[in-house]
Amino acid sequence: MKRILVCEDEDVIRDFVVINLKRAGYDVVDVNNGEEALRVFDKERGSFDIALLDIMMPGMDGFQVCKALRKRSSTLGIIMLSAKTQEMDKVSGLMLGADDYITKPFSPSELTARIDAIYRRVTMSVSRDDEAEATIDSGPFSLNLKSRTVAKNGIQIDLTQVEYQILEYFILNAEIALDRSSILSHIWGDNYFGDDKIVDVNIRRIRMKIEDEPSNPRYISTIWGFGYKWSVKFDEE
């Protein structure tokens, strides 16, 4: 069963979300505040695939809940829900570990499409469990296709599933300049409703985890006006 935790303090919006997600086949648990969201998550640890979090809530806001949930799980799909359209809200949520964001107002079709895309990504980690283990090496990095983990010089890097997918895409296309639209399509799907800013924020997050100097990246280089490229040739020279 596809299971989702919905945290939204406005009753009308929460009811709208719950009804449409249940129609789409999700098992929904809904709460109206951040503290209750964490309590429920801890009580039913491991049973949720996705968390949908409103940003503006009294007490513990969505950013705090997102940060706390991400510490608890790297595989949980997290989507931020906001009435604001400010760029900083989107960036802040993504930098804290969210996988996507939805801006109010939104249609039922947009809601389910975005959540379905996250659910497919989350379940990819399970679908490979029965496959033969395979490892891909790229410079100091070792990518395990079965466990969907990445290690640098033998030390595992703590990545979310979105970050893992992006890094896998880069490593499998080493030395190839990848434009933002192709990255967006490959990771978030062809029918993604959002903008490509989500790509840039995730790249920034990955650089903070894999680069010795994130502000002067060696592995993920920016191709200005186009996208990004993965390279480890300098390590082999």
Explain this structure:
The protein is of the alpha/beta class. Helix content is 43%, strand content 22%. The protein contains nine helices and twelve strands. The strands form three sheets. Strands 2-1-3-4-5 form a five-stranded parallel sheet, with helices on both faces. Strands 6-7-8-9 form a four-stranded antiparallel sheet, with helices on one face. Strands 10-12-11 form a three-stranded antiparallel sheet. β8 and β9 form a beta hairpin. α2 packs parallel to α3, α4 runs parallel beside α8 and α6 packs across α8. About 2% of the residues have low confidence.
Radius of gyration, whole Å:
18 Å
Q: What distance separates the N and C termini?
A: 50 Å
Q: State the total count of DSSP E strands.
A: 12
Which percent band covers the strand fraction?
A: 15-25%
Please provide the ordered H/E string of secondary-structure elements: EHEHEHEHEHEEEEHEHHEEH
Record the SSE blueprint.
Elements: E1 2-7, H1 11-23, E2 26-31, H2 34-43, E3 50-54, H3 62-72, E4 77-82, H4 87-95, E5 100-103, H5 108-127, E6 135-138, E7 141-144, E8 149-152, E9 155-157, H6 161-172, E10 178-179, H7 180-188, H8 197-210, E11 220-223, E12 227-230, H9 233-236
Parallel strand pairs: 1-2, 1-3, 3-4, 4-5
Antiparallel strand pairs: 6-7, 7-8, 8-9, 10-12, 11-12
